[in-house]
Protein 1
Amino acid sequence: MAVLPETRRYAVLGTGALGGFYGAKLQQAGFTVHFLLHSDYDHVRQKGLWVESCWGDFHLPQVNAYAAVEEMPVCEGVIVALKATQNHLLPRLLPPVLADNGVVILLQNGLGAEPEIANWVGPERVIGGLCFISSNKVGPGHICHLDYGSVLLAEYGPGYAPQGITPRLQQVQADFQRAGIPTSLSPDLMLARWQKLVWNIPFNGLSVIFNADTQQMIRDPEARALAETLMHEVIQGAAACGRHLPQTLISEMLASTEKMAPYRTSMKIDYERKRPLELEAIFANPLRYAQQGGIQMPRVEMLYRQLQVLDRLNRGIPA
Amino acid sequence: MAVLPETRRYAVLGTGALGGFYGAKLQQAGFTVHFLLHSDYDHVRQKGLWVESCWGDFHLPQVNAYAAVEEMPVCEGVIVALKATQNHLLPRLLPPVLADNGVVILLQNGLGAEPEIANWVGPERVIGGLCFISSNKVGPGHICHLDYGSVLLAEYGPGYAPQGITPRLQQVQADFQRAGIPTSLSPDLMLARWQKLVWNIPFNGLSVIFNADTQQMIRDPEARALAETLMHEVIQGAAACGRHLPQTLISEMLASTEKMAPYRTSMKIDYERKRPLELEAIFANPLRYAQQGGIQMPRVEMLYRQLQVLDRLNRGIPA
């Protein structure tokens, strides 16, 4: 796997709560960053990006803003921070902006997007990224970073075969860390994705069912017990994919959720805003991978079906 | 099991959508009926009961209304039509009003209330009743009967042992039918209760989760599939209690739900009115009975836990 060139320009596809924040941090640190925008294009082109952050507020009065990928220069690091529900746009968005010697860095929840992206750009050009951050877009070009903020990066390989820690991964880590982003590396992307799913499947899913934040859920004995039961199923799903997560992860995650400030999950925020829920990435794909490994996750599947119904009713979509 | 005396007076404990309707029908047919009331007492004492019914509207300008059981005469038929969540009141409510030669007729959903009642009045004085009716209380002493209306009666025996069709059961049936209520009899109360649970567990439960009526659920492929899966589990629960329901029941119930006018389940109405949900009778007890028979119902259990959380959040009850 080739290293990245000396000069690493970054593109951000999806300048929202995640892409806006991490892209702004990179630009603030001196990197050249090009931002693709949609509804905020005019505002950001004129006024730049405004980041309220628990790490320190800052304003970038001028950013390279684009309304179309065709106008963007090719970049060596293309950060994809779209909602996973928008990934069907990537076959069109990626080719114009990804340099031949560049990589796609997918900052999303869930499982199963990397093989798709690999179909379009080649598996040797895909890095997966997991963000541990509370961040919201609160207005045009206005991002509010509330808590946490670390990123975990891992190479994608065909069929999610572990790729180890590559020099290229360390290059991206160095850039992110120069930008003040705590960044760790994993040799096994699928392991990292399943580990995050252990939290995301119960808490994202149940937050929509219960219309509740993390504190309301963790304080309720039945909600907590249900989250725990779902976590056990997810760990079994991971094992079906050959990824063995320790059972102690569950009590650790429950304890850290107790200590977290009340948090509205991304899925609950999407639901409130009547946006499509990221059900493919967070539910359908993990269910499929587990099933291919011979494991059913009946409660996860039930939650998935419930969320499909709620998502349709919420957005007024006929079944 | 003794027959009932010639003169059968009825008491109605819980003069709401069910008790108000069936009690009014009995009085209209010439039976002596005594109604226990709570919030509607003054109104009903002064103005009687007003029944809008798809079988024909009628008004009873005067009814025997009571605010306390101690003021009621003893009756040979005591119809319990309280919400199951109120059953903790029965040890106090039943003794003053139940004649020595009388029976309790429990018109409720769910499973497991009869053994409790049997503890207080003796198992030989308990009849279970299942109502197939769309009826709402829409104002003080004002009942709106929308559709259906039949009742199924069955004797309770210790441990829900089947009691067959007794002469006493036929006497109550004759009274109900004289009052224009289509009334059938079952030799096996527990079988009847499980059969109704096959519908009530999925549709009552999911109607709260989805904030949806029966038509919205039956038209949505995932909601329908989930109802079907839950029905399979309930049939397994019934089998664990030695009650073998045919699998064809499922497709019959789904087909009849398709044909029903859009219907808000009783549990959804309770939820909307921020009343406690009948979770013990409809979920916890069936789960317990199935478990005692060696069967887990994991999806039913998950739905139960979800509803416990929603019920608490809905009523602002700290966990």
Note: The first strand of chain A starts at residue 10 and ends at 13.
Protein 2
Amino acid sequence: MTKPALTPLAESLPASVPFVGPEAQERQMGRTFTARLGANESAFGPSPKAIAAMQKAAGEAWMYGDPESNDLRHALAAHHGVQPENIMVGEGIDALLGLLVRLYVGAGDAVVTSAGAYPTFNYHVAGFGGRLHTVPYNGDHEDPDALIAKATEVSAKLIYIANPDNPMGSWHRAEVIQHMIDRLPSGCLLVLDEAYIDLAPDGTAPAIDPDAANVIRMRTFSKAHGMAGARVGYAIGSAEVINGFNKVRNHFGMCRISQEGALAALQDTGWLSHVRQEVAQARDRIGAIAQAHGLHPLPSATNFVTIDCGHDGDFARAVLAALVAEGIFVRMPFVPPQDRCIRVSCGTEAQLDAFAQALPKALAQAHEKLR
Amino acid sequence: MTKPALTPLAESLPASVPFVGPEAQERQMGRTFTARLGANESAFGPSPKAIAAMQKAAGEAWMYGDPESNDLRHALAAHHGVQPENIMVGEGIDALLGLLVRLYVGAGDAVVTSAGAYPTFNYHVAGFGGRLHTVPYNGDHEDPDALIAKATEVSAKLIYIANPDNPMGSWHRAEVIQHMIDRLPSGCLLVLDEAYIDLAPDGTAPAIDPDAANVIRMRTFSKAHGMAGARVGYAIGSAEVINGFNKVRNHFGMCRISQEGALAALQDTGWLSHVRQEVAQARDRIGAIAQAHGLHPLPSATNFVTIDCGHDGDFARAVLAALVAEGIFVRMPFVPPQDRCIRVSCGTEAQLDAFAQALPKALAQAHEKLR
């Protein structure tokens, strides 16, 4: 009896996970983290109105969610000044990125991103047999000129850029991104990941043009809205690009509870302002903690601060390992020279107290280890 | 400027939806349904313990769900007497079916199912370029012999069968399915969809053999557990087949709230017994209502009853349209001769009262229309 065989593409893929979850690390360590500062979750929580809406919806969870996410899609369209046909709601940006790659990237098709940018996007490109081309960061910023040049060179189907960027927290002004859009090579779609845009300074997001056929923007309720666990992301694009998702998406995939929560979160603009303030204060505090120990915090337009540890990747990895051992969940960039840094999410005061306490110990241990 | 081009496969796919949701129908009609009996949701709701767990988790939704669904997977493994490595949790059976097809079905690969069986499975097969071969139902049952014969003939990668079956409510005894497993052609994987198994008589599910490399079973919290809107399904299979999902799945796709709800639902065996009783009573009542109007209810091992309307598909479609117009959401099989039936989900007493009241009017209208 021959076993069922995977497709050649599936057979070629490793069983992998772009990120190990903090729970898995906790199980390995046999204890829980004191501070959960590694996944850029919003420790300030969802809007109380969103929590209430989700609690109400929990009792109605016997009903499938609306496969059109109609109410949420209409509310988002109104919020952004576009039509509902310009919005696709999905199970987080991760799921939408997967579908987008599936729609546009066939075996051997070229895709361009920055070396060290979002691993989950790369995972999807590999998963559909695409060929990934990378360009380096430039001064800890993604490099629009290099991305455009590479995409032109390799006739890329997609370019990925996050603005603001993860894992560096850096950002470009709207004009820089718009200039990038204006120079896209023919047949190339720009995937503009704006997961952190709600936390960025005004002037970071270019105006949304619902008729632009060559750009799709990704937004999420996971970051500023504090609903990472609810899995609600959305794409904004031309009606034609958006309608493509209807060819391949899991129509009944959206959790009913999450749809209700996102709708309430969108309407609670007061909570969003509150979170922005909390995040700004936490960024300052993380920066101050870093500086107090001779480290260099990078400017951030996100809900995390990337801290230059002042040495190489081995040193930063040692700091990270020591922090984790001290019960502080943090992550770091994967690729040099950005891997000289660790990345710390904005947390509550108590969480940042724990970080402040653990950091000098971790630095001492890292110095000791690499002496 | 050339627009970005979809892959040839994606370009060839229609933008479609396997099922139109009741909310979309309500928006079209401009009013809500009186009775929601069309999607085999459990009107008896989730376990109160599951609701409480989801309400608690709503406040913790700022954290991503555990990408390994560790606690739920371990609980499910213990429940089924297998190892956690034999379980994959996903965003409903629909999502798992999509991933499974992606893993095994390449362009032109043969897949076998019954004509009129689950459209979402067919949607996934088309979506990955597979070639679908169908065999007819036999006496309103899926036909294991015909499925095996066809799979052997076309060298199928996958066979899909639901036991109990949707949309007919029929079922095979465990021995029949086991005999089917024993005769699978070489290289063929049996996708055994057991979404309704919790509502079937003892002796419907063959014993789970975690070492069997040629069968994968699909289970869900959407039906008996009343959590369709939470999107929690799982697959049971050999460690090797299950690990395949780790090559392509959306690791952080599971809603944290839903994971907690499913865990609590699994533990509340009392609620499951209660739902089984409610479903049995509702099946009897739907049958009695059908018979009172000269229709023939088919035996059911599910939370719905398929009712033979005694004429052809046009008549049943007219009955269905009239029921919908009367505010009763029901669905029906798509393919003759099964499309002589309508399919009514087990509802609360009030919902079935509404159905009982609407049915004679709908029958009269259908007779009038087709006279």
Note: Chain A touches chain B through 92 residues (CB under 8 Å).
Protein 3
Amino acid sequence: MAAVHQAALELLEDPGAEVTIPAVARRAGVNPVSVYRRWGTREGLLADVAITRLERDSPPVDTGSLRGDLIAWAQSAVEDLGTPLGHAFLHALVGSLPTTPEADAERSSHLLRRIVTIQEGIFDRAAARGEHVPAPEDVFDIVLAPLYLRVLWGAPQADPVVLVDRLLKLG
Amino acid sequence: MAAVHQAALELLEDPGAEVTIPAVARRAGVNPVSVYRRWGTREGLLADVAITRLERDSPPVDTGSLRGDLIAWAQSAVEDLGTPLGHAFLHALVGSLPTTPEADAERSSHLLRRIVTIQEGIFDRAAARGEHVPAPEDVFDIVLAPLYLRVLWGAPQADPVVLVDRLLKLG
């Protein structure tokens, strides 16, 4: 499994390479059938690789305040999304999500739960300091949604400090 | 061109149909080469169909106030995104956007400009009434981004009234 993740990362970093399940399996030295069985689709595999990368930096850095922690987290998300690899991952993540309203809410909520878990380290520390903790939906709507949608749209990135201050003002 | 749009819509509405450029061209009775030449990719074609649908309802309904106009616009976006067709279009639109940070900012900004133009009817009326007009980036970040990203993520939809009131409070 680590070999498959590693192979996917290496292919994503090679601008000339096609990132398909057969190509990833070949590079990892495993049978493509076992990759299909575990991840289902190319997008499912890349989404798993992407979230595993996010989890690697979890819990996020402790700056001593909720505002500082959120700004550091949002700034590192912006930096990550600005690289070709981060960008490819976001497209893969979105491409792996259900394409009809009815479909596959369970798979989607599993991915979302993993992303929310990454932020929980920040909120747990804020609660321990006695700070007011914002609702996860507000973090999603006010900070995460503009950062992600601006990348998907190819628009210039928002200022993470403005987004975090907006969240704390409303929270 | 209208025949190609119509054929794409009909195929998208048929759950058993594959929506490819050759299939759309066949149904429209045109040469696939001319479809490739004009739209480039399947995603480019579907994005054009999606935005043309949005433009159809433009300018948005006049309720007599900026708040009412924005709520009506956001509610109709939520309804549209909740249908299988609206959902398929959003995925196609995102799939048509550049997949590397460097790529194709011009094509992306053309799509964005068409979306912004739809909202301008609302802002022009607000300005004529003497109401304070929010910045387009704030409308994008505070209202549009959560609505669209929640659909892409398969999360339950946000309340458009909450988002619009948040925008007006901050604007």
Note: Residues 100-104 of chain A have pLDDT under 50 and may be disordered.
Protein 4
Amino acid sequence: MALEPVLSHIDDALPAALDRLKEVLRIQSISTDPAYKANCDAAADWLVADLKSFGVEAEKRPTPGHPMVVGHIDGPGPHLLFYGHYDVQPVDPLELWNSDPFDPQIEDTNQGPVIRGRGASDDKGQLMTFVEACRAYKSVHGSLPCKITFFFEGEEESGSPSLIPFMKENAAELSADLALICDTSMVAPGVPSIASQLRGMLKDEFTIHGPRIDLHSGHYGGPGLNPLKVLGQVIASFHDDTGRVAVEGFYDGVQEVPDEILRQWENCGFDEAAYLNSVGYTRPHGEEGYSTLVQQWARPTLEINGIWGGYQGAGSKTVIPAEAHCKLTCRLVGDMEPEALRRNLRAHVEAQLPVDARVVWNNDLDGSKAAVMNIARPEFEKARGALSEEWNREAVFSGMGGSIPIAGFFKDILGLDAMLIGFAQEDDAIHSPNEKYNVESFHKGMRSWARVLDALSK
Amino acid sequence: MALEPVLSHIDDALPAALDRLKEVLRIQSISTDPAYKANCDAAADWLVADLKSFGVEAEKRPTPGHPMVVGHIDGPGPHLLFYGHYDVQPVDPLELWNSDPFDPQIEDTNQGPVIRGRGASDDKGQLMTFVEACRAYKSVHGSLPCKITFFFEGEEESGSPSLIPFMKENAAELSADLALICDTSMVAPGVPSIASQLRGMLKDEFTIHGPRIDLHSGHYGGPGLNPLKVLGQVIASFHDDTGRVAVEGFYDGVQEVPDEILRQWENCGFDEAAYLNSVGYTRPHGEEGYSTLVQQWARPTLEINGIWGGYQGAGSKTVIPAEAHCKLTCRLVGDMEPEALRRNLRAHVEAQLPVDARVVWNNDLDGSKAAVMNIARPEFEKARGALSEEWNREAVFSGMGGSIPIAGFFKDILGLDAMLIGFAQEDDAIHSPNEKYNVESFHKGMRSWARVLDALSK
């Protein structure tokens, strides 16, 4: 099927596509708040109707929470599963919005026009780039170049409680050759990006116990073992002087970034100084010898997220407290095994403790492996080529410092590799007041998907 | 004046003395709670009347807070100022008391009889040991062997806001040769003790700032500087592996305990193992090479009293917080200068900080020097001899881990050396439910003061 008329159609139909996006943005589908249950349902209904409007066999599918939307449309090429989510984050603090979060408007900015409103970027705007690309194909050619399954959830912003059970129960229906996900950012403005690796996560929490009860530092100050001091020593023991994590076995399963990928990252337009300066840093503080991007995309971390113990009120209290608390998370890369890491981490902490101190662990916190995309599959280079053409610059396989569990679920439950292509900008303010999506992201996003479908069908 | 008849009179009059103690214990003189203002006033009135009943010229003296009681009685010997306080701690949690805290009762225990009630030990019972000794002298001999000024305050348990102004305004009236204070414990049951050194205190608090705002550990985990990690490193830097404080200049002004005092402490009946085990320790955790008592009485400390930062709720939050907080106190001994120590401490913390971290100090917290009693004065050996006779075992010059500012005030404002003799037991539960005072402490306390007055008058 010819690509050029599809791209022209997308250009001509941009105002109509923006009108449709505004329609779905007006639906207040805040998934975490039960008060918006009917709104979530309405968003699912809207999507079902929209998919049906260009020939997709689509259905709203009930779950114990908000419904899924599943749609199928045939085509000659490979079978692709496209995932997105129609639910959005809450809008508070409402007073920080400059306009009604659910009355989307096109606004001119120094980045060009943007569409502003809750969900404009995360994820309704991104989701619709793919839907619109499919619609354009159907309009121009009467059919699609690939077989597509649409799979939209309404609980992504509230922990996806129904996702895994639904995928397990409907594994046959959701089977495909490759999953596509549009919920990520570009590494820099104008730089098309395929997220090729997401870090995993290990969560843990411990309490160091010292004396049986809180003690008075007049009576016991000196001979008394202070768990706050012990916690400080434990925290200090986690890293060596070069920023490397000093837990034995921590780096098991970590690979260095291949030169080819490293070259892409070095040329991806990421402005290291601006990124660091924006939060008050003059240099990166992770492992020596790695750039900021590598530290954040391809190196594991051990991060203290919370500490507390003893007196925290005004003034002073001469207490040696009985307990000190610490929450931490590790970011995982490569083949790091969360539970093996947990054992190593805990053994490390136990080994730091002096006589008369003991540690109690919270056993309710989970872990997930890093997701490393299977970029050896030919679809990845095809898609990269398609994106490079659309954006007139080489697309990059980018890393991501965060964790998106959905990619792992596709692999584990459905045996599906996932390809993450997104057009969001770092400054889209997702989860924050005044969320926006650049009209360029929307427009070129639609065109990008048209090109990707074309490339994958060949 | 003959001592023996005074001691006999004290023995005979014990029931009457206990009745008087019960009377004053029934007065709910909780100084920190404005609801008990009239009760504090009533306690002062009771003391004025009681002092007058045996010929002391006593007056209630107003202050902006609760009144002082000042009384004078003449005698041939040296002029002694006796200090005590008539106010008590609140009684909550009331449900943990086995009897009404303000309905004192004599109770038989395996330590012999005790009088139970709020203030029985701290400080009404202790205060009355001295008053009763004076009364007995007056009954037997018609006069006292020394000139005495009584000085009782009603705000000791609520920060003594009126004490320093009152002492300054009435310095001439409060002048004497030596101050006596009865508000301390014996180092072990049956071991008479003169507190010869109290530790001072330096309070400080700081906040370590890292990034300008809280960061997401997916985005910045790796290159991001985490103030919680920096705080851990700062805390770990405070002590070396032997438990010694590693702050430069920290030990300036610290002297080793003289052998003669050390010998007294080694034989004072202090049960180190029981003291440590009672709170869950198997060994002392302070500076290596010093016993538990020396660590707690005669060595300075740097103690972390509170830490907080980042996420402290349920579950996990992937945050790199902007701030980490730490409260600490140092216990001072010898000639350590609080403000010099503060400068050294702060310089130490600043020196630990990596690039992009900064520290902000709370400048509202004070410090006080250690109080080292002038035991070279002959009165101290006289009193030690008197106590040794009464208790049939050598009295000791004991240290105290805590800080009692009043001794320093007597020195600074009135130029008075203070001698602290007390008969409380470690298990008296002062400030706690079911406070008690051993009847033996009360009885032998009265006899002890009679002997001390006798010894000092010679």
Note: Chain B is about 35% helix and 20% strand.
